[in-house]
Amino acid sequence: MADSSFDVVSKVDRQEVDNALNQAGKEIAQRYDFRNVGASIAWSGEKIVLVANSSERVLAILDVFETKLIKRGISLKSLDAGDKEPKASGKEYRLEATLKEGIASDQAKKITKIIRDEAPKTVKTQITGDEVRVTSKSRDDLQAVIALLKGADLDVALQFVNYR
Known about the structure:
single chain, alpha+beta, 5-stranded antiparallel β-sheet, 4-stranded antiparallel β-sheet, 4 helices, about 35% helix, about 25% strand, elongated
């Protein structure tokens, strides 16, 4: 019998992020507390730029955006807003956020170590680029690995794809 496998990846659905960004923009345009503060949220290349006339308003915009991401099923671990400290630029405050995609090599090593230490011994791992392939003869062992990784406290949002 052939080995069963799946890939551990960290990807973000750009369309869902775009939808959340548009919803947040609409809410900001309609809410009373965002009137006349120059509040906006938009893409700027690969970054998401939040702008308002006070740092508190920028953080409120970030909160609205995070709420929309959660409603669309996107983990906040994939959103990197830096130190969450808006920078003053003339009369406005700006905050730039980026999306984290792919598993960094140190995170991949941490994932494989968790699997090596706590998963059944029949499970094998292999790091390929920015994803981790997990293989085993038993599908039950692979299910146990998925449950183990979902319960682990990692700094990256994980998805499990190509389950064969």
